[in-house]
Amino acid sequence: MSTVASFHLTRYPAGHALGAMAGLVTRQRGLAATAGLRFVRQLGTGRGSRMGLGADLRRWATFAVWDDERALDAFLAESPFAARWRDQAEESWSVRLVPLSAHGSWSGARPLAELDPGADDDHDAPVAVLTRARIGLRHWPAFYRSVPAVEAHLHRQGDLLAAVGIGEAPVGLLATFSLWRSTSGMDAFAYRDSAHAEVVRRTRSGGWFSEELFARFRPYGSTGTWDGADPLAERGRAGGKGS
C-alpha cells in the first residue's frame, strides 16, 4: 500500500483551550513516536476561515503523513491522541488524503517526496490543497498587507468547499488547508489573473519565502464535522482510496 496523509481539525470546549496549547510540545513528541508515521505537525488555526493575523485558541489542526493506510487505521483505533480528539473535542473533522503532487519542503523535510505515480488525478473530483511557507522577517509587513485581498478573492470562488489558515507560529510560519469541488476550480483561483496570482508573482520576484511547500491531494473517507457540517458530504464523502 502506498503513502497516505491525513488532516484533522479539532475544536475544544473553552475549558480545554489552554490545556490544548500548553501540551502542544509534549504531544508533538509523543505523536512523532507513532508506528508508521513519517511526518506530523500540530498546528494552530486562524479565526473562522481567516488566513491572516489572529488565532482561534479553541481549534487545532494536525497534518500527518503515513507509511500506508494500515498505520493510519491503527493510530485512529489505538492511539491516546486520537482518543483525546474523540473524548474531549466539542467538534472534530478528519479526512484521509491521497497525495497527487507536491513540491518544496517543510522545515527541511520532504514528507511527500515519494508519490504513487498511479494516483488518480480526475480534474472533476474534489481536491485538497496544503500550502506552507516560511516568510522572511523583512517581508512580513508586505505579506500581511496582501492577505485581505487574497481572502476576499478566495471566498468569492464558487468551487471552494472550505478553507482554514493554520500555522506553527502566530507569524512567519504559516500554512493553509483548503477543499475544492474540482481541480479546475482550484486552478482558476490559483493561476488566473487575480489578487492571488499577483501575490504569487510578488513572492517569487521579491523572495518573500525562505521555504515553501505546495501539495495537492485527493480527499476521501471524511468523518465528523467542520463548523457544523462535513464539507465533503455533498460529494458523497468519497468512500474509498483514490475515488
> What string gives the helices and strands in order?
EHHEEHHEEHEEHHE
Q: How far is it from the N-terminal to the C-terminal residue, by CA?
A: 15 Å
* Shape designation: globular
Overall pLDDT score: 82
Sheet with the most strands: spatial strand order: 1-3-2-6-7-5-8-4
Q: CATH class, please?
A: Alpha Beta
Indicate the proportion of strand residues: 25-35%
Percent of residues in helices comes to 25-40%
Which spans of ≥5 residues are poorly predicted at pLDDT below 50?
A: 236-243
CATH topology: Alpha-Beta Plaits
Tally of separate helices: 7
How many domains would you count in the coordinates? 1
Structural class: alpha+beta
Number of E-type strands: 8
Q: Measured on Cα atoms, how large is the radius of gyration? A: 17 Å
- Mind telling me which CATH architecture this is? 2-Layer Sandwich
Major sheet summary line: 8 strands, antiparallel, barrel
